[in-house]
Design a protein that fits this description.
The protein is α/β, with parallel strands linked by helices and 159 residues long. The chain has four helices and twelve strands. One of its GO terms (molecular function) is metal ion binding.
Length: 159
Amino acid sequence: MDFATADLIDDFGAELRSCETQFRQYGARTRFAGPVVTVRCLRDNGLVKRLLNTAGDGRVLVVDGGGSLASALMGDLIAGAAAGNGWAGVVINGAVRDVAALRDLDLGIKALGSNPRKSAKDAAGEVDVPVTFGGVEFRPGDHLYSDEDGIVLASRPLL
């Protein structure tokens, strides 16, 4: 998919929401886009693992981990499953781990930082609920576009 978020802002202006959070890029895909699926969880990646082990169909999983860097919500095994299952990307308002391995995966991955500590696996949290961080609301079914400049959201597909 060929796009630049800056060009999308120029072309679609007020129709787009721009996330203010300054994420780090971890996956091999620096540019990714797709319909949004959301998870809200805190220091527990059971729901993240469950979802990313299903068919992604080009979607993007947005995980609101409350901005916690206390433990990782995704590592190389879960990210590898996501890449193999056709997910376009994962945006985590929290931490990842296995950073060296994530670099080689054909998956868009943005997160706040990294921590080698594992998270709980109880599947506590919520799926397909609106989540808010970076000054924007991420709603299930929104269309997310991400590149080196940042993340923008639209309520409909733009490309």
